[in-house]
Amino acid sequence: QVQLVESGGGLVQSGGSLRLSCVASGRAFNVYTIGWYRQAPGKERESLASITSGGNTRHADSVKGRFTISRDNAKNTAYLHMNRLQPDDTAVYYCNATSDWDPRFQYWGQGTQVTVSS
Questions:
Q1: Contact 98/28 with Cβ under 8 angstroms?
Q2: Residue 59: strand pairing partners
């Protein structure tokens, strides 16, 4: 099992930047793929980015070039660097850990609110 805690959200002006963090418990962090998602009111949860245990990344077209996912296995932490934020980026942002050994085992954090003012 793994527990995830997101942090780093807040209120930022349009064009600003934030760095979200996802701190994971457990000693098996390095065998989980980490993903970042967001959900705005009235919208479906949206996948933003993922990073495998080996460091391979993907980013959704909607945020490619603005958001960057990374991880530091020594710190059991994954990050989402968000640049040039816009009001439509306003959402609750969640991290997810999916086991490389068995993808049926996955865990979610509680989310962190990002609000971008115009």
A1: no
A2: 49
